[in-house]
């Protein structure tokens, strides 16, 4: 029996992160799309790879955020457009925030 050559089946996964972000941001239900991609990435990687993503638009947005001081090592939670530093807040500060800034 001949073994198939699996090297021919490989698909280069270039810009998979950009294409995932593009799929999430352009979805009608971004939270559901984020959940689906994070739970089923091995299954969806093939479909995401053939997606046409506007990489320059995403890189421009990342550059804008970096100019504002938001680097990849910073964790921030956004609630209705208000940034919350996740590294310095405890549960009582979240309560204070939601009490004085009702959503």
Please, could you describe this protein's structure?
- With 103 residues, this protein is mostly helical.
- The chain folds into two domains: 1-70, no CATH class; 73-103, no CATH class.
- It is 50% helix and 8% strand.
- It contains five helices and two strands; from the N terminus they run ααααββα.
- It has helices at 16-25, 30-39, 41-49, 55-67, 91-100; strands spanning 76-79, 82-85.
- The chain has a two-stranded antiparallel ribbon.
- A hairpin with a 2-residue loop joins strand 1 (76-79) and strand 2 (82-85).
- Helix 1 packs antiparallel against helix 2.
- The chain is elongated.
Q: Which properties best describe this structure?
A:
two-stranded antiparallel sheet, 103 residues, mainly alpha, 2 domains
The overall strand count is 2
* Rg estimate, integer Å: 19 Å
How many independent structural domains? 2
Oligomer type: single chain
Q: Percent helix among the residues?
A: 40-55%
Query: Which strands sit side by side, in order, in the main sheet?
Result: 1-2
